[in-house]
Amino acid sequence: MSDEEDDLILSELNDEELVLQMMDDLYDGMKAEIEEGVNILLERKWTPYDILTKSLVEGMAIVGVDFRDGILFVPEVLLAAGAMKGGMAILKPLLIETGAPRLGKMVIGTVKGDIHDIGKNLVGMMMEGAGFEIHDLGINNSLEEYIGALESEGADILGMSALLTTTMPYMKVVIDTLVEQGKRDDYIVLVGGAPLNEEFGKAIGADAYCRDAAVTVETAKELMAKKHNQLSA
Amino acid sequence: MSYTDEQLTTDGLNADTTGARVLLVACGALAREILALIKVNGWTHMDLQCLPANLHLTPEKIPDAIEAMVVNARDTYDDIFVVYADCGTGGLLQTRCDELGVTMAEGPHCYSFFEGNEAFAAHADTEFTAFYLTDFLVRQFDSFVWKPMGLDRHPQLRDMLFGNYEKLVYLAQTNQPDLDTLAEEAAERLGLVYERRYTGYGDLATELAKYA
């Protein structure tokens, strides 16, 4: 980064320049600058929802694309996610106060025997940014924990994540149990994780395999819209 | 045959054909162990070619790389054995090997077949918070773990990446005190409890013996 950029005073930028700069800062994982940018936009009377969607979510989507294309790697994505989290921490209480649109509720967690939660955390954050409510079960979840949370939270979507070839078959156990209990059609089931693929998603009876956080958001929106259409038909 | 761990990580191993009947297509992370087994057992009918070990950082590329190597060599050998476990390909490598008509090693990854697939599976429910290293991975810890995970540049990411792990288990193929020391240092750097477990070559030896 050049000295000129180091000397940038965010508050002196106009809105358009500031949003672009925030996307750059997010890309570079600069948490303090993101927090500063969010506060400046709030002072300029931007709605929390607009700040979230037009700067943070859009910026993170660029990070996601560059990760998928092999331009960015896990460490850089984590730093960007950390920066977004800083901005989200400021916006979240305000979003609740201002009644930002809610698109649905997702229960998410890594499957039994799997402690790898980086992907799951990114998905949770991006879904939240897109307007979904997230109930994060954390790591190592049994089918009882998944199904119990779906019911107690009144969720629309189940998101299961696995990094290991040895743990991913557990997703089928959860889905099969939902089928046995006659609850499968009550929920949209999305699965993801490095060793998974579309064929696996189909084979275990998930609604979709999502290769990354951005795809998860798009898929969730699409399937929620279909669900609403079916209900209103 | 002269090679370094760095070459095995980034370039693999392309040994000259010797007129042997069987080709072992393997991961560079297994080269030393396989060559040791070939030597000690006198398996002179086996040639070894290795893909770069760092393909593990992008497992989705493994099936295509294996296919290219198999197709290139199949007219030269009577039999080809793919010395890869699933290695994070989510079953895609098994599917590809089936399509190519070649056999591959059993198990989810090399940690498993070094310890023995059965023994490894037996503690899968109780040891999923363990991070495993083999001899090769201990020697290449910086290239395989520390740098790709960005910990050389961003040490603050350590707990985000490894916070859910509890211990580092070094599955040792050989008894080398210097590797033991390096593995213990790696555990300390990751903030994990250290455990060493001698495995020898495990199922790798029995799998290769099928081609003896």
Order of neighbouring strands in the sheet with most strands of chain B: 1-3-2-4-5
SSE series of chain A = HHHHHEHEHEHEHEH
Greatest chain-chain contact: A-B, 25 and 25 residues
| CA-CA gap between termini of chain A | 55 Å
Helicity level of chain B:
40-55%
What class do helices, strands and sheet pairing of chain A give?
alpha/beta
H and E string of chain B: HEEHEHEHEHHEHHHEHEH
User: What form of chain A results from the Cα inertia axes?
Assistant: globular
Give the low-pLDDT segments of chain B: none
Silhouette of chain B: globular
Number of helices of chain A: 10
Q: Got a strand count of chain A?
A: 5
Number of strands of chain B: 8
What kind of assembly state do the chains in view correspond to?
heterodimer
User: Which structural class fits the helix and strand makeup of chain B?
Assistant: alpha/beta
Provide a descriptive summary of the structure in words.
The complex is a heterodimer of chains A (233) and B (212). Helix content of chain A is 59%, strand content 13%. Chain A has helices spanning 3-6, 15-27, 31-43, 48-68, 74-98, 118-130, 143-153, 170-180, 198-203, 213-232; strands at residues 104-111, 132-141, 157-161, 188-192, 208-209. Chain A has a five-stranded parallel β-sheet, sandwiched between helices. In chain A, strand 1, helix 6 and strand 2 form a beta-alpha-beta unit. In chain A, helix 5 packs parallel to helix 6 (118-130) and helix 7 (143-153) crosses helix 8 (170-180). Chain B is an alpha/beta fold and 212 residues long. Chain B contains eleven helices and eight strands. Chain B has helices spanning 5-10, 31-41, 62-73, 92-100, 110-115, 117-122, 135-139, 141-146, 158-162, 177-190, 202-209; strands at 13-14, 22-27, 46-51, 79-83, 103-104, 130-133, 167-172, 193-198. The mean pLDDT of chain B is 92. Classes of the chains: A alpha/beta (233), B alpha/beta (212). Chains A and B meet through helix 5 of A and loops of B.
